């Protein structure tokens, strides 16, 4: 199974989705499917059940909905379908993906409050408590679990406890963490958990999914502000028509995702995948520090999925040149996305193993053109 560098991929994607998939996940796409045939719809139902089981031990209280598009479409489906006309959303943000939730809410005319923690500070449950104590009109709380902008891991358990203490609906963008770190939606008090096919489950891009507390999802009936992204209607159709999507579904992508779920099980489940990602991230952080790079976040905020590094302090350094050289060596890395410092990012999720990270560190060491 350890296909470190499939020959049909010219480089390893060290980007946090789309990411490098296994050859068997890609091969699963080599046939066509009929969207109303039982074979296909049963595949969809199996995926929905597996997702709920991955998300919680309290399976009877949760359900799942698959939605066409990239992960943001699912976030927007939740934001635009879950908050009623007299509701108000509070977003805790410390990066571009938190900010994107705010932008979505504003476009839909949803009253929104924001607690902005800046770019390098964790979201904090105490600040949430103060806000909720001061503003009883807030009905929903949203936060990003792994803020891919920097690699920050936010404390969703503590935030969930406060949200529940005040009786709020709790929305978590777990896009780049779900499937890659153990979590139980019920224990975390999550009402809507959002992720997508091309992150830690290691499928290809094309759809996302929402794992929802059924009692919270039922309340979304009639609230949606768009037709295509109506979370409730999408769910209702899947429930009543045995896995049927409302509009054309990305059949090949769905079949590949099923294969990715089987491969997650074969790896030993989320616990084992988490161990691999942790090992990858540790090797990456240690190796990069050893050859002179500095890491943006303190260790206690760092996720095991993606790491931000400061540019080296040299006039001769450009990200474009580093990118090109590493691409030649077989690795694609990611530019930075924050305003307060010059950084770049390296992801370590996907079909990526400790040996790959060691090869990357060697390539990095041999390509320090700014020292020449
Ligand atoms: C990837 C990601 C998204 C969704 O991004 P898309 O480009 O729409 O797939 C949302 N939130 C987080 C934290 C992400 O990492």
TrEMBL record:
Its EC number is 2.6.1.37. Substrate binds at residue 345. It comes from the Bacteria. The keyword RNA-binding does not apply. InterPro entries: Aminotrans_V_dom, NH2EtPonate_pyrv_transaminase, PyrdxlP-dep_Trfase, PyrdxlP-dep_Trfase_major, PyrdxlP-dep_Trfase_small, SP_NH2Trfase/AEP_transaminase. It catalyses: (2-aminoethyl)phosphonate + pyruvate = phosphonoacetaldehyde + L-alanine. SUPFAM superfamilies: PLP-dependent transferases. One of its GO terms (biological process) is organic phosphonate catabolic process. Its cofactor is pyridoxal 5'-phosphate. The modification N6-(pyridoxal phosphate)lysine is found at residue 199. Keywords: Aminotransferase, Pyridoxal phosphate, Pyruvate, Transferase. GO terms for molecular function: 2-aminoethylphosphonate-pyruvate transaminase activity. It is an enzyme of class 2 (transferase). Residues 42-319 form the Aminotransferase class V domain. Pfam families: Aminotran_5 (PF00266). Belongs to the class-V pyridoxal-phosphate-dependent aminotransferase family. PhnW subfamily. Involved in phosphonate degradation. Homodimer. This is 2-aminoethylphosphonate--pyruvate transaminase. It comes from Brevibacillus brevis (strain 47 / JCM 6285 / NBRC 100599). The gene is phnW.
């Amino acid at each position: 199974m350890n296909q470190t560098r499939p020959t049909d991929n010219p480089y390893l994607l060290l980007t946090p989705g789309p990411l490098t998939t296994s050859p068997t996940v890609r091969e699963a796409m080599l046939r066509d499917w009929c969207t109303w045939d039982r074979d296909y719809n049963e595949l969809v139902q199996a995926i929905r059940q597996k997702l709920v089981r991955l998300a919680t031990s309290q399976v009877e209280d949760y359900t799942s909905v698959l939605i066409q598009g990239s992960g943001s479409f699912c976030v927007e489906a939740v934001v635009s379908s879950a908050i009623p006309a007299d509701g108000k959303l509070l977003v805790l943000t410390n990066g571009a993906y938190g900010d994107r939730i705010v932008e979505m809410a504003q476009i839909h005319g949803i009253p929104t409050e924001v607690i902005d923690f800046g770019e390098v500070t964790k979201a904090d449950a105490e600040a949430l408590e103060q806000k909720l104590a001061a503003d009883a009109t807030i009905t929903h709380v949203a936060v990003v679990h792994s803020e891919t902008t920097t690699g920050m891991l936010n404390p969703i358990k503590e935030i969930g406890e406060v949200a529940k203490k005040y009786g709020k609906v709790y929305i978590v963008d777990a896009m780049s963490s779900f499937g890659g770190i153990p979590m139980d939606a019920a224990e975390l008090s999550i009402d809507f958990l959002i992720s997508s096919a091309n992150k830690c489950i290691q499928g290809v891009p094309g759809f996302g999914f929402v794992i929802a507390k059924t009692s919270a999802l039922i309340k979304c009936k009639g609230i949606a502000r768009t037709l295509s992204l109506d979370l409730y209607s999408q769910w209702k159709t899947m429930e009543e028509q045995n896995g049927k999507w409302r509009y054309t579904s990305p059949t090949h992508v769905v079949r590949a995702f099923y294969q990715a779920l089987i491969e997650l099980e074969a790896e030993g489940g989320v616990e084992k995948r988490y161990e691999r990602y942790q090992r990858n991230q540790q090797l990456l952080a240690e190796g990069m520090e050893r050859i002179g790079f500095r890491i943006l976040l303190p260790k206690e905020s760092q996720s095991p999925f993606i790491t931000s590094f400061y540019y080296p302090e040299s006039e001769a350094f450009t990200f474009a040149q580093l990118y090109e050289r590493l691409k030649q060596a077989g690795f694609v890395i990611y530019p930075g996305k924050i305003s307060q410092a010059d950084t770049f990012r390296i992801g370590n999720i996907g079909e990526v193993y400790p040996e790959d990270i060691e090869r990357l560190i060697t390539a990095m060491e041999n390509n320090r053109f700014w020292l020449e």
